[in-house]
Design brief:
CATH superfamily of the largest domain: Glycoside hydrolase, family 3, N-terminal domain
Structural class: alpha/beta
Strand order of the largest sheet: 2-3-4-5-6-9
Largest sheet: 6 strands, parallel
Strand content: 5-15%
CATH topology of the largest domain: TIM Barrel
Radius of gyration: 25 Å
Number of helices: 16
Number of domains: 2
Shape: globular
């Protein structure tokens, strides 16, 4: 292989069929042909690209065909971020409950069942790489980007469930890319927009953040890096092009973290892939080519999304980018031995998962729905039930206060299901009000149910003498403000998820919540623990 061919194997661009502010976006057929002709290591698709499963399968077949017809002897990595919860890209795919719900169920068989469905669906469409599982330990409740994407704040739970996740992907012929090494769970800044700092020593990381990655190091196919500064580990700096101030090299660009900690200490010899290089943590502070040089010299094998492809001009820019990296190799700024090492890993992994390019049959995914319900039922957590407030009988007058239209739709779906199953009487009163609606809280109800999505401004008047229920529909940390409610539940979902639907039905005794809190919930002072990890009220 020429140096140009080797460098292209180390690049995985993204692309968009549509850009609202551009007119030169290429049609799908042209895009597929041009991508195939480039002989990249792989491509990643997002929801923008995925109109339907059939359309996506057809597109990926066109890329394979173009690659083959233009002399490409190496297959593509076709990647997707299908974590199975908040980050799910596959249009029409089964919307699972997410990792923190799996952490609340804390059952490896539930993880396996969930990921078998997830893996089978992306495999049928034609993907062979899943940028999952998230192995971040969510040990910072204020983390703005991981949250319910994490299994738990307990590294042992994350490690155990993460291994089950990887094995289930492998059972479907899907490569796993564990992320975000060496850990994004303690960050207080979203690396999509800024450059976070985690001020921990290597010894501290070894006790928490690194535990799941070490556990996965012998079975995961790829490790995705985090764009996070670890100043106690990496001492080299770079002058930010945005601020003019020195910043520490983030993990993605750190030879100490990639070559020493990941390769030597953890013994990982698979493919190291960057998180997207277009993210603000890199693009705002580092020159694009400097970032490529630093990443490759640090030990990275695969550069994810150095730029977005959508037009003829963007393909020209990508050619310029590749040519510049080739020149750096020729000039000795990047050792060719370093390139050869990465390409060797990439080719070995592709050979291991080599499969036919024949079209795959796409099954009826509606049959997968029961799997997500079982996960939802096993994850709902009852944290408080004063004087057996629950279950409700359905004869009470119930007012539900929802934070969003998605929450309202989930409650309406739950009510409809209970009506059809005669769980609640035909003549019932379950009224729904949006949180932002004006007016004083009516006082003529028997039960007040307040649903929160991480923040709740609704307060039930004290001394009302009525039953009160608080449901945390997303991050469970907001339950810290609900200690005065009669009943408190958590379900770890996201907008439009099934979690809340299942949780609301639990109020009426459709099942006994058996999930356990997968994270500790601190109080307002950040130190006092309101609910401990593992908490739940025993079933009645």
């Amino acid at each position: 292989m020429t140096i140009d061919q080797k460098v292209r194997q180390m690049i995985m661009p993204s692309f968009r069929f549509w850009k609202p502010d551009e007119t030169e976006a290429l049609p799908a057929e042209t895009m597929a042909r041009k991508l195939g002709e480039q002989h990249f290591g792989g491509i990643i698709l997002f929801s923008d690209n995925i109109v339907s499963s059939e359309q996506t399968a057809s597109f990926l077949r066109m890329v394979r065909k173009a690659n083959s017809e233009t002399g490409g002897s190496v297959p593509y990595f076709f990647a997707i971020d299908q974590e199975g919860g908040q980050s799910s890209r596959l249009t029409g795919g089964t919307m699972m409950c997410g990792n923190m719900a799996l952490g609340a169920a804390n059952d490896e068989s539930v993880v396996t069942e969930t990921v078998q469905v997830l893996g089978s669906e992306i495999s049928e469409v034609g993907f062979n790489v899943d940028f999952a599982p998230v192995l971040d330990v969510n040990d910072n409740p204020a983390n703005p980007i991981i949250g319910i994407r994490s299994f738990s704040d307990d590294p042992e739970i994350v490690a155990r469930l993460g291994r089950s996740f990887i094995k289930a992907l492998h059972n479907q012929g899907i490569m796993a890319a564990s992320k975000h090494f060496p850990g994004h769970g303690n960050a207080a800044v979203d690396s999509h927009v800024g450059l976070p700092v985690v001020d921990k020593s290597l010894e501290e990381l070894q006790k928490t953040e690194l535990v799941p990655f070490k556990a996965a190091s012998d079975i995961t196919d790829m490790m995705m890096t985090a764009h996070i500064q670890f100043p106690q580990i990496e001492k080299d700096t770079y002058v930010s092009k945005e601020t003019g101030e020195k910043v520490f090299l983030p993990a993605t660009l750190s030879k100490t973290i990639i070559s020493d900690v990941l390769r030597k200490d953890l013994g990982f010899d698979g493919v190291v892939v960057t998180d997207a290089m277009v993210m603000g943590a890199i693009s705002r502070h580092f020159d694009m080519l400097d970032a490529a040089r630093l990443a490759i010299n640090a030990g990275v094998d695969l550069i994810l999304m150095p730029m977005e492809l959508y037009s003829e001009a963007s393909f020209k820019a990508m050619d310029d980018y590749v040519n510049a990296i080739v020149r750096m190799v020729e000039e000795g700024k990047i050792p060719e031995s370093r390139i050869d090492e990465s390409v060797g890993r990439i080719l070995a992994l592709k050979e291991k998962y080599k499969s036919s390019d024949e079209p795959k049959w796409i099954s009826d995914w509606r049959s997968h729905a029961p799997f997500r319900w079982r996960t939802a039922f096993k994850s709902v957590t009852l944290l408080k039930d004063r004087e057996r407030t629950l279950p409700l009988t359905g004869k009470e007058r119930v007012l539900v206060i929802c934070p969003s239209v998605f929450a309202r739709l989930s409650v309406e779906e739950s009510v409809g299901m209970m009506e059809r199953s005669a769980i609640i009487p035909e003549e019932h009163v379950i009224d729904i009000r949006m949180e932002g609606e004006a007016g004083a809280l009516p006082l003529d109800y028997d039960v007040y149910v307040v649903i929160s999505e991480n923040k709740c401004d609704v307060r039930i008047p004290e001394g009302l003498g009525k039953k009160t229920v608080f449901i945390s529909s997303c991050l469970p940390y907001d339950t810290a403000s609900a200690t005065d409610y009669d009943a408190v539940l958590a379900c770890y979902g996201y907008a439009g998820a099934i979690n809340l639907c299942a949780c609301f039905s639990a109020l009426f005794g459709t099942f006994n919540p058996k999930g356990r809190l997968p994270v500790a919930v601190p109080g307002p002072d950040g130190r006092t623990i309101i609910w401990k990890r593992g908490d739940r009220v025993s079933s009645h």
